[in-house]
Amino acid sequence: MDMDSQKVIFRLGRRPAKQGPRPLLNDQDRVGKLATGRNRKLQLELSEDRKEQSIQLRKKLRIGTWNVRSMSQLGKTQILGRELDRNGVSVCGLSEVRWEGRGHFTTLEGHTIVYSGDKVRGQQGVAMWLHKRVAGTLIGYEPTNSRLMVVRINARPRCISFIQVYAPTSGAEEETVEQFYQELAETVKRVPRKDILLVAGDFNAKVGGTRIAPVVGSDEIGDINEAGERLLDFCLNHELLLANTWFKHHPRRLYIWTSPEGVTRNQIDYIGISQRWRSCINNCKTYPGADCDSDHNLLVATMKIRLGKKKQLNILPRLNTKALVEEKAMEYKVEVENRFEALQVLHDERTPEELWKETKEILLDVAKETVGFKQTVRRKPWISDNTFDIIKEKREAKQKDPSRYKELKRQAQKSLRRDKQKQLDDVCDV
């Protein structure tokens, strides 16, 4: 049976024969697994009230990624949720979850997990964890395969497209690595251009020992390897920067993976963001104190959008057509006729486009010389002195005479409406 055609509802747990997700009872109130189809469009259908929820990016948002080294352990989902909640993480990509199938569900604490695994349990797998306070902002997700998935989150002023990855290790075949980066490139191209693009996860690559602006900003952790060179090429081609290489921290806040003997430490997990939105990342570092029985540390980026001021567009000058009356109108008419007569004397063959350009230039040039342009009108305060006097009298009567205060309040509103209408009339008459 095709895995995509299964419509079994899952939750986390374990039983003697299998570990991981198992069927829910019919009366349990959970979000069920979603059959995804093969058209690779964003999959989740949401109710209208849920679509209205959004994250305000002008406030700080903490986004993380974590290689959890299997989610099949008993109670791992609850432990992971408590650790992420304790560290203030709202959205976190997960690598190596080792679940089979694909879909989404709600945990006992109310958090939402979206996952994309292999057909066989216990291999690879990626997922996305969303805190219950932001779970309603989930627009949709695309489970590409067991190493790639993209989640789109409703945010203001721009939506976030979060791609979670789990790259092949350095010992994988060249064909496998090439296929992974090809699928990742295709996934990036499908992301809407207006979205804030985040690409995070376990890349199994080291980019230390090099500083390539604007991709890598520090060379403190390790030396670059072949996988790191491939990652740098991908970031350069798609205009991404690796956020956790751009902030100065103590080495314990930079390294991600620790070897079993505790000697070797490397930086192989990254949070990449579009260079266009680089100013949104305020900080990015690891949290060694977070624990979920993994040899990888939790990597968290603090995000807060900064919008630049919009430059005022140059206002095109307008001809003073109201002055084109009586003597000015006659002067304009005579000058235009003289120039057209001179134009007819020329016997050069001209195309209709050239004739139109010459006609346009004659009409505009004569108008500029005859009537000129309108003077720019600066905006002035539109509330009159009489209205301010009523407002002052109203303020003085507030504590002394309540009935008089109500009467003056009505007068002030009436006077304000009259002043505003006068301002609009003056603008329209200009």
Output the CATH topology of the largest domain.
Deoxyribonuclease I, Chain A
Radius of gyration: 33 Å
Query: How many domains, as an integer?
Result: 3
Q: Could you state the order of secondary-structure elements as H and E?
A: EEHEEHEEEEEEEEHEHEEEEEEHHHH
* Parts with pLDDT < 50 across at least 5 consecutive residues: 1-51
Enumerate how many helices there are, as a single number: 8
Strand content: 15-25%
Structural class: alpha+beta
Mean pLDDT, all residues: 83
**Which CATH class of the largest domain applies here?**
Alpha Beta
Question: CATH architecture of the largest domain, please?
Answer: 4-Layer Sandwich
Fourth-level CATH superfamily of the largest domain? Endonuclease/exonuclease/phosphatase
Number of strands: 19
What can you tell me about this protein's structure?
The chain has helices spanning 48-51, 76-86, 174-190, 226-237, 326-345, 352-370, 385-397, 402-429, and strands spanning 10-11, 22-23, 55-56, 61-67, 91-95, 102-106, 112-116, 126-130, 138-145, 148-153, 155-156, 160-166, 196-202, 240-242, 257-258, 265-266, 269-274, 281-287, 298-303. Strand 9 (138-145) and strand 10 form a beta hairpin. The chain has a 7-stranded mixed β-sheet with strand order 6-7-8-5-4-19-18, with no helix packed on it. It has 3 domains: 3-303, 4-Layer Sandwich (Deoxyribonuclease I, Chain A), CATH 3.60.10; 321-370, no CATH class; 385-429. Helix 5 (326-345) packs antiparallel against helix 6 (352-370). By secondary structure, the protein is an alpha+beta fold. It is 29% helix and 21% strand. The protein has 8 helices and 19 strands. The chain is flat, with a radius of gyration of 33 Å. It starts with 9 loop residues before the first strand and ends with a helix. The longest helix has 28 residues, at 402-429.
